[in-house]
Amino acid sequence: MAGTVVMTGAAAASPAASSVSAVSDVAAGYGHTCAVRTDSTLWCWGSNYLGELGDGTTTARTAPVRIGTAATWASIDAGTSYTCAVRTDGSLWCWGNNFRGQLGDGTTTSRTSPVRVGDGTTWASVSAGDSHTCATRTDGSLWCWGFNRFAQLGIGTDPYYATSPVRVGTATTWASVTTGFAHTCAVRTDGTLWCWGDSTDGQLGLGGLSFRDTPAQVGTETTWTGVTAGYAFTCAVRAQGTLWCWGENGYGQLGVSGTHRTAPVQVGTATTWTEVRAGFDTACAVRTDNSLWCWGNNATGQLGDGTTTHRYAPTRIGTGTAWTSDFAVSFHICGFRGDSSLWCWGNNANGQLGDGTSTQRPVPGQVVLPA
């Protein structure tokens, strides 16, 4: 049944429950959640004030609802109040808030259903920020659109906002991209890391507080394997399994004590980190043993440790070792385990935990999608 929740510590979900909630990708916005199931169908729930669920309405949902009838969704990401996803045919679709052109459809009209971004069929990945979006194509090119007040599109300071995708430079070696509130970072195929946009809190990692209007390399290392941008901070992992963060640190979101950092600082000494994701002021990461760790802002219980205490160092979520590298971080967090079961916790004011309620949860609870 939709909305069924099994709390951490309860018996493992039955095979039947796991099969109907099998998820392949999950995304968390400010107050909404979307997930692509292993059957390539798309489901969303939570806040829907600007159509961010994509179900053709502006009605909030406290339990998962299927979006359309398509069974060709491949990957998804959620911005503050909008959503973008890539289909198996390489087409790109966005919906929700479009006040700054972040949907990329050539307008500033918000959409309550998915609208296609151009007619390209070579989109590989997409990252949705607060008001700007960036995506990579299969040819290694990088494209951005939406709000550009802080040069977060990487194309200079003009235009103020772009309503259609604009190519960032001429490089064809972009491997992945991540968007924060007003900054962007990306990794290239040679393992170098590049950031641009706002750096008021040092979130670009370039050693200063000056913004950059085009991609600037972070250090000289060539071993970066993944990067994630939060509101005004950034975290990344290297091939050696080390974890690094920089930028604003008011809640401990860098995983270290002290004030903001303008250059990457290593989080602890562990060399077993494989994947890191950042939300507004919170971050989580998975280790090689498939344990999940979170830190930073915990005001709504999003660290999943049963408290609302902010953490300045990674704190383990339970004792489980079945977490995969696919999880999403916001004021609520969702992630799935090796059996493809989906779990969410933290803020639930808009029903974004998908359990049929609006009750905040400080520990993981399972979300079972309809059959």
UniProtKB/TrEMBL annotation:
One Pfam family hit: RCC1_2
Protein name: Regulator of chromosome condensation RCC1
GO CC entries: cytoplasm
Superkingdom of source: Bacteria
InterPro entries, alphabetized: Ran_GTPase-activating (IPR051553), RCC1/BLIP-II (IPR009091), Reg_chr_condens (IPR000408)
Upper lineage: Bacteria, Bacillati, Actinomycetota, Actinomycetes, Micromonosporales
Gene Ontology molecular function terms on file: guanyl-nucleotide exchange factor activity
Gene3D superfamilies recorded: Regulator of chromosome condensation 1/beta-lactamase-inhibitor protein II
